[in-house]
Design a protein that fits this description.
By secondary structure, this protein is an all-alpha fold. It has helices at 4-13, 15-36, 41-61, 66-74, 81-108, 116-155, 161-196, 205-223. The longest helix has 40 residues, at 116-155. The N and C termini lie close together (7 Å).
């Protein structure tokens, strides 16, 4: 598939595709708001409204998303006991994140008591950060196994050079995807930490904006049709 419009249509037909697009809107508007708030408060206010609307829209799009983690566990999370254990921890954290995100969304739009928003935000962010730590570990383990397999292939490449090249190409492609996943998870971990333990670095608009865009664009790369 070489047509960019076809690829864009397929990308935007996915829930993750729409999420990454709206996430880009959310964090670009956050950065613009920070940049112009002192000189152009009227313009900053518009971008702040866009940021808030984009954030709430993303929460609505994620309705039922906690079932993804449940299904991953139900279908078999790993080939070894260690991988299964890590996958249970990672997916459990993500399930908590997405499940309580429903209540955060409802509190933010005023359907539930707005005083619940801070509590739901903390629980959701804690589950998110907990899950991301173990997803990052799983990706590093997979990359290490891939590099080990690549070295073994290189040692026996003379037997079937074409097959060896194909295998190495697949390993490298998987490594790039996993590096994108690690970049996205680290960026989202920083954003989650800003909710769990507010601090000048994580809560700065530039830190949040750049982290959000890194996560969004890594997601674009991973979900873009090949």
């Amino acid at each position: 598939m070489n047509d960019s419009v076809d690829k864009l249509v397929i990308f935007l037909a996915k829930r993750d595709g729409i999420d990454k697009l709206v996430k880009t809107f959310q964090y670009v508007s956050k950065l613009v708001n920070w940049r112009v708030e002192s000189a152009r408060p009227d313009l900053a206010s518009r971008f702040k409204q866009w940021e808030v609307a984009a954030g709430l829209s993303r929460k609505a799009f994620r309705s039922g998303r906690f079932l993804t983690g449940f299904n991953a566990l139900r279908r078999g999370p790993g080939a070894t006991p260690a991988r299964r254990f890590l996958a249970v921890l990672a997916n459990s954290g993500e399930m908590v994140y997405f499940f309580f995100d429903h209540f955060l969304w409802l509190a933010r739009i005023g359907f539930l008591d707005t005083s619940l928003a801070r509590r739901m935000s903390f629980v959701s962010a804690f589950g998110e950060s907990f899950g991301y730590v173990f997803f990052i570990v799983l990706d590093f383990i997979a990359m290490w196994e891939g590099m080990t397999a690549q070295r073994k292939i290189a040692a026996t490449a003379a037997e079937d050079e074409k097959e060896a090249k194909d295998k190495v190409a697949k390993i490298r492609a998987d490594r790039v995807m996993r590096l994108m996943a690690v970049a996205a998870n680290v960026a989202d971990l920083i954003i989650a930490l800003a909710d769990i333990e507010p601090n000048p670095f994580c809560n700065h608009a530039v830190t949040l904006g750049i982290s959000g865009l890194v996560s969004a664009w890594a997601g674009w790369y991973r979900n873009w049709p090949s």
